[in-house]
Amino acid sequence: QEKSSRLSAALFGEDCEVSHDQLYELLKYAALGKCHNATQPSWCHIYHQSHLAGVVVIVLHEMSQLHFYKFYLQFKHLRRVFRHRFSLTPSANFLASLYGERANLKPANTAQGLTSASSECIPRNSDLQCDPIIRKYGEKKRGLTSYTLTLEEQKKNYYPIKGSPGCKGYIYTECDQQRTDSSPLFGLDCEMCLTAKGNEVTRVSLVDAQGQCLLNELVKPESTVVNYRTRFSGITKKMLLPVKTRLTDIQTRLKNMLPRDAVLVGHSLNADLQALEMIHPSVIDTSLLFARNEGRRFKLKFLAKAVLGKEIQCEQKLGHDPAEDARAALELAQFFIEQGPAKVAELNLEMLLTTEKLAEVSQNKAALQPQGCRVQKQLNELPHLSKPCFLDCLQVTGQKPLLLGRQELDSSGLCQSNLSTSNKQILQRALEDVPLSTFSIIQFSLGPEYIASHILAGLCEKVRSKLTDMLTIYAGPFEENFCLKSVKKEFGRCGPIQYLTVLTETYQPYVCIQYEVLEAAQLAVESLNGAEVAGSCIKVQRPVTAAMLDCDVLIKELELDIENEGVIYVAGLKKSLTEMDLQEEFSQLKDLETLFLPKDLQSGKHRNCCFLKFQKSESAMDALEVINEWTLKGSRLRSRKALATGHLWRWIWQMKHSYGKQGVLYEKMEQLSDSEQDLRKKVKKLDQHIKKLYRSLQNNTLCVVLFPGVN
């Protein structure tokens, strides 16, 4: 558990900023676990990383915290669903700092094709002893029965087992005859589509030991098809329309075709048997046969090329050919049995895979170089960092990350070209492909016309102006000779005052007060409007401008913000009170989790207000009623629901101090208004895209949305 002070700081703005290195740590560990020296992030903790279904990073290209607050009301889904928010520290190059700079490695010199490695790639005998294949099987040749999965291995790898509770209704092949080293091998592969039930078979292929295709049949799923996965399965709606064959027909045919001592061979065969709803006692799984460290697996396509010298699953073809995949898996098993573990280990598959990945990445980088993208240029100009490219790490583990976006993302050299012309196209592709990938980066963009410097300067000025108006209240009228000190004292009980001035342009005196926090201004409007202050019954209101017409709606939405759940604001504290004094005073409140006493970011002095976070929202509401009746050390307290989360509170302070003297040319404001109208619509659409994508994700998916900004 973290210390209370650390928690409070993170909640309320002192420590709500994360660096790109910290974000890199989080994503790397979430995707890789303990592979490639990935360790738990230094700033947070992921429990049960192995249970993560996937990692999805949504990048809102060239949008920043400015856009989030300017279009806060439009980001309806984003702010209601995502519970944790952090400010990102500035970065000279966002993509490079997020993924890690590519290591300056050159592929090893190899002969044509992956199967004929040069002498420097062949491992020494001492290295062979460390090879996971040798550690698992030894160096001597063995018969096929040595490579069939044991019952324990089948259970561990989620094979359907006879008598298992999860396999109720599954068909048993009844191949119970004792296996020998001369038992017949059969290659099996299925293609699946996604239905309302889950994965269902749409095509089944079975080949014999000579590679002859015995079965290659289309199957009509029982449930409604949600996604045909045509890019991978090759199956289309049109293909299945005339099909009458059902799963039960295939089960019967397979059961009749297989001899009593048959051994089934496949790549990750458990998925095929689960989809077929069949149980077979004797299997060789090539994804496990060609063993790797740390539970990783080689892909069938790579093994076919590296071991057999065959190209399968070619990108020119529409989807995979199950007969081709079944034959490849069968031939891989036959190669392993005939050549023995030592010969397979000498292929040095791990080195070949790394070489292939680096060559592939280099080709992509070279192919994309002529585009002249500024991101590519920035990547080349950066000094090489010690950490490896994040996407290279993923690819070496056998995971192919999905990257969808516009040119800037793809031409960084970190992925193959997946260019889409619109956010809608990117979304449609993401909905299809994200469920098939363990790590996805999806990039949406507003478009280049919305990132011009005068547009950003105008947005910045408008946000600064609106924040200033929200922090400002006007109070009056007062008598001619009213006591300014008593007015300042009364309004000071609502929270820390930035400045107070008397307005003399009016018939009777008014005061203009600008507070440091939103809660203080809102509390003044709620508690002092219509009250008697300095001998006058006064009206308290915010400035009336076009931008402030939706202020009440914005305040309500800030109250309901998921980050403000269970958090209340308390004002009227004496500055002599320490944090320890307040902890003691408020300790009687039920379910109090954290107390935070904010301080001026320049002077470091404590303010006359604090924030309290409760474990339950109901407890926070109960505390509000109690605190509003309290008098603490002779000072009456005032409280309300919190409005500004930690990063917003800090950002308001930065905006006021960084942009206080900046403005925008008035002749460009009219043009900005037109752009802003379009921007609102665009942002609202983006929020809907995020909503659709988020809802399509599997449970236990880590989803991160990034606003990288323009610099």
From TrEMBL:
GO terms for cellular component: nucleus. InterPro entries: Nucleotide-bd_a/b_plait_sf (IPR012677), RBD_domain_sf (IPR035979), REX1-like_exo (IPR034922), REXO1/3/4-like (IPR047021), Ribonucl_H (IPR013520), RNaseH-like_sf (IPR012337), RNaseH_sf (IPR036397), RRM_dom (IPR000504). GO terms for molecular function: exonuclease activity; RNA binding. Residues 471-545, 566-644 form the RRM domain. The keyword RNA-binding applies. Keywords: Exonuclease, Hydrolase, Nuclease, RNA-binding. It comes from the Eukaryota. The keyword Nuclease applies. PANTHER family: RNA EXONUCLEASE 5 (PTHR12801:SF82), RNA EXONUCLEASE REXO1 / RECO3 FAMILY MEMBER-RELATED (PTHR12801). This is REXO5 exonuclease.
